[in-house]
Automatic annotation (TrEMBL):
GO molecular function: ATP binding; FMN adenylyltransferase activity; riboflavin kinase activity
Recorded coiled-coil stretches: none
Alphabetical list of Gene3D superfamilies matching this protein: HUPs, Riboflavin kinase-like
Annotated metabolic or biological route of this protein: Cofactor biosynthesis; FMN biosynthesis; FMN from riboflavin (ATP route): step 1/1; Cofactor biosynthesis; FAD biosynthesis; FAD from FMN: step 1/1
Family statement: Belongs to the ribF family.
Lineage: Bacteria, Pseudomonadati, Pseudomonadota, Gammaproteobacteria, Chromatiales
Pfam family name, one: FAD_syn
Protein name: Riboflavin biosynthesis protein
Species whose genome carries this gene: Thioalkalivibrio versutus
CDD domains with a match to the protein in the record: FAD_synthetase_N
Length: 320
């Protein structure tokens, strides 16, 4: 799968060079890439095959709701299920031709619906077929909808199709439902909705090394500025590229006790102390141990981590 970033030149040259001009495209946030999203990808690939065209997924970074919330007095949006890295790793297992990641900024937010259809979908991509949900809105002030796409498509040479909806006994499968299950610590339910285990990916980086000073060294993954849905302490598996699954307890959040200023995942391995620096790994939570807390000093934190370790051992033994 190719990765294409940004709007690029105001013509089709970049997409022609990438072999993606004339693609069949679907557009959305795709947070979590749950079973509903997977049905969309399946239909995208079928439509591309029918037309002997490449299949492309268009997504955004940051997510539009994050961009607008950061520039207004509106309440903070719900945390993400996945960072961009997680979305791309998950998509890498698909047969997509490319993922096109558009930076959602003032330029993109200010594009009219007409400009988006003419300049982005038609002039740059040369889209042949577009799959979107019935509630899809786009363009400045959310002025565009599926009907506008269909009307423009007749003029610009692309067709429009509604994406499939996947339901279970409780209703439509959505990122909102997956997020609620994750926040509740019900990772068995999360896996059912995703169709796979929930995982956060990253490369182990050097941290502050405070964990070593209190007897609990950690493997640290930097998670970027956009808040995740998960916040607190979780038991789970730190999986290495080799396939080895290391039992671990991980804190996900801003580390208020030590005045943390960036969101991190800090995983303490329960058995042994392997050297993981620089390795690409993923953390697969099994259960929540507790929520994020601020403690009065490192000694109180050390005592709580010791209790967290024992809780995590118990939880993991039940999920082995």
């Amino acid at each position: 799968m190719r990765l294409i970033r940004g709007l690029g030149p105001a013509d089709s040259k970049a997409f022609e060079a990438a072999g993606m001009h004339g693609a069949v495209v679907t557009i959305g946030n795709f947070d979590g890439l749950h079973r509903g999203h997977q049905a969309v990808l399946g239909r995208l690939l079928e439509a591309a095959q029918d037309r002997q065209a490449p299949a492309l997924l268009m997504t955004f970074e940051p997510l539009p709701r994050e961009y607008f919330a950061a520039r207004s007095q509106a309440p903070a949006p719900p945390g993400r299920l996945q960072r961009l890295r997680d979305r791309l790793v998950t998509l890498g297992d698909s047969a997509l031709g490319a993922a096109w990641v558009l930076r959602f900024d003032a330029q993109l937010a200010g594009l009219s619906a007409t400009a988006f259809m003419e300049e982005v979908l038609h002039r740059r991509l040369g889209a042949r077929h577009v799959l979107v949900g019935d509630d899809f809105r786009f363009g400045r002030g959310r002025e565009g909808d599926r009907s506008a796409l269909q009307t423009a498509g007749k003029r610009l040479g692309f067709t429009v199709e509604s994406t499939p909806t996947v339901r279970d006994a409780e209703g439509r499968i959505s990122s909102t439902r997956v997020r609620a299950a994750a926040v509740a610590g019900d990772f068995a339910r999360v896996a059912e909705l995703l169709g796979r285990p929930y995982r956060l990916h990253g490369r182990v980086a050097h941290g502050d090394k405070r964990g070593r000073t209190i007897g609990f060294p950690t493997a640290n993954l930097r998670l970027g500025p956009w808040p995740l849905a998960l916040r607190g302490v979780y038991s789970g598996w730190l999986r290495r590229a080799s396939g080895e699954a290391l039992p671990a307890v991980a804190n996900i959040g801003w580390r208020p006790t030590v005045g943390g200023t960036e969101q991190r995942l800090e995983a303490h391995i329960l058995e042994g102390q392997p050297d993981l620096y620089g390795e690409a790994v993923c953390f697969e939570p099994v259960a929540q141990v507790r929520g994020e807390q601020r403690f009065e000093g490192l000694e109180a934190l050390r005592a709580q981590i010791a209790r967290d370790v024992e809780t995590a051992r118990t939880q993991l033994s039940a999920h082995d």
